[in-house]
Design a protein that fits this description.
CATH class: Alpha Beta
Distance between the termini: 45 Å
Strand content: 5-15%
Number of helices: 14
Strand order of the largest sheet: 1-2-5-8-9-10-11-14
Bound molecules: phosphoenolpyruvate, cobalt (II) ion
Number of strands: 14
Order of helices and strands: HHHEHEEEHHHHEHEEEHEHEHEEEHEH
Largest sheet: 8 strands, parallel, barrel
Shape: globular
Radius of gyration: 21 Å
CATH superfamily: Aldolase class I
CATH architecture: Alpha-Beta Barrel
Helix content: 40-55%
């Protein structure tokens, strides 16, 4: 039986941690951790194992991974409408990808826990005022005042509560009939009939409709049409939170991070000898690691040795985020080296984080065409190397925001101001997300 008291290596450096009032071991954070430790798990270890088995299928080329949601969830946006719209968008995308690939699509939200952000600078300056940077609702408030920007550990308890209510609604929506495949197809028809896209996506929607009609005429009405498995994921960033929610599974005696099914370690916190990697190495969840353009094949092998020394299938996912301009140059050496080693890895493309730029108006944005180009490069590299382009990782929302430019709606840099709502990075809106799904579906079909 694993001992939680001695599980994590003490004294390691944890990058990107807030400066809690009272210090890293002071009374305020200790109080929040004590409260969190008493709360029940948000997910069950058995569900994490189920997801791991599905990741193993995707590693073997028999499933496709779709992960999407906010860059940063906020407490204020955990409303019924916002959660429903995000789930709806992901389910619509999944239906198209599943049809085109003839493979199960693993549906994973950047949801119910994605409340903390790494920052390139610990402070933000406006005019002659410098304050702590916004690190996500888990840590402080986005408003630019000293009170708001002060880290408050009690927010971690609110992360737990908001994640619990989000997950409750996610489970209700995905198990209670809302997710019925036929309903999802009706929504997709609403999108493909939109005159702004001409006939670009109508053919595939028509094919899906005929396939569904064929099955219904044959009397096929499976349970699997009505319910879907939907998993929760977030970046494991604030280690006090993740450790407080790490529990021993009564079935196996092993430790699981029960704050979400899948957690990943970000590009800025994946130091091999750092506290985040030690954390990830010690929990049994399926784990992701972000890989940016400076990564080498040797780095990837070192991460594998650290996080999956037994080469357990389903355990490790690499989420590459190279940027459209670099993916064709940087990805091949990494994939080739890992493939040669025989390691079981799921390759997922994050076409968002390497493609951010600042518009002249000052808004942080991304071009839809750059996003698509990175995904295209990802497919090209895997095709050339004979490896499986296993999935995509997208920052999106179900609402009609104007945060990324381009797409069929032709959002321009001048349009950004009209509905720019993100608390962190720019997200694809509902329509751009569906467009991306149809375009990726074509790539999957042409594989
Ligand atoms: C993110 O996924 O929001 C993120 C910060 O990514 P990365 O660690 O790849 O920069
Ligand atoms: Co982001």
């Amino acid at each position: 039986m694993t001992n939680l008291q001695t599980l994590f290596t003490p004294g390691l450096i944890a990058a990107q941690q807030p400066e809690w009032p009272g210090g890293p071991t002071g009374e305020p954070i200790a109080k929040a951790v004590t409260a969190l430790k008493k709360l029940p798990p948000l997910v069950f270890a058995g569900e994490c194992d189920n997801l791991k088995a599905k990741v193993a299928e995707a590693q073997a080329g028999r499933a496709f991974w779709l992960q999407g949601g906010d860059c940063a969830e906020t407490f204020a946006s955990a409303t019924a409408d916002s959660i429903r719209n995000r789930i709806k968008t992901i389910l619509q995308m999944a239906a198209v990808l599943q049809y085109a690939s003839s493979m199960p699509v693993i549906k994973v939200g950047r949801m119910a826990g994605q409340f903390a952000k790494p920052r390139s600078s610990g402070t933000e300056t406006r005019g002659d005022v410098t304050l702590p940077a916004y690190r996500g609702d888990a840590v402080n408030d986005i408003e630019f005042t000293p009170e708001s920007r002060n880290p408050d550990p009690q927010r971690l308890v609110q992360v737990y509560n908001t994640s619990a209510s989000t997950l409750n609604l996610v489970r209700a929506f995905t198990q209670g009939g809302f997710a019925d495949l036929r309903q999802v197809h009706e929504w997709n028809k609403g999108f493909t009939n939109d005159p702004r896209f001409g006939q670009r996506y109508e053919q595939m929607a028509g094919e899906i409709g005929r396939a569904l009609n064929f099955m219904s005429s044959a009397g096929v009405d499976p349970e699997s049409f009505k319910k879907v498995d939907f998993y929760a994921s977030h970046e494991a960033l604030i280690l006090e939170y993740e450790k407080a929610l790490t529990r021993i599974d009564s079935r196996t005696g092993l430790a699981y991070d029960v704050s979400g099914h899948f957690v990943w370690i970000g590009e800025r916190t994946r130091q091999l000898d750092g506290a985040h990697m030690d954390f990830a190495a010690k929990v049994q969840n399926p784990i992701g690691v972000k890989l940016g353009p400076k990564t080498t094949g040797a780095d990837a092998l070192a991460i594998i040795a650290k996080l999956n020394p037994t080469n357990e299938p389903g355990r490790l996912t690499f989420i590459t985020r190279m940027g459209a301009g670099l993916i064709r140059e940087k990805l091949p050496e990494i994939v080739e080296t890992v493939a040669k080693s025989g390691a079981h890895i799921l390759w997922v493309c994050d076409p968002m984080h390497g493609n951010t730029y600042e518009a002249p108006s000052g808004y942080k944005t991304r071009r839809f065409d750059d996003v698509m180009d990175e995904v295209r490069g990802f497919f090209e590299v895997h095709k050339k190397l004979g490896t499986h382009p296993g999935g995509i990782h997208i920052e999106l929302t179900g609402d009609d925001v104007t945060e990324c430019v381009g797409g069929g709606e032709q959002i321009s840099e001048a349009d950004l101001a009209s509905r720019y709502e993100t608390a962190c990075d720019p997200r694809l809106n509902h329509t751009q997300s569906l467009e991306l799904a149809f375009l990726v579906a074509e790539m999957l079909r042409d594989r």
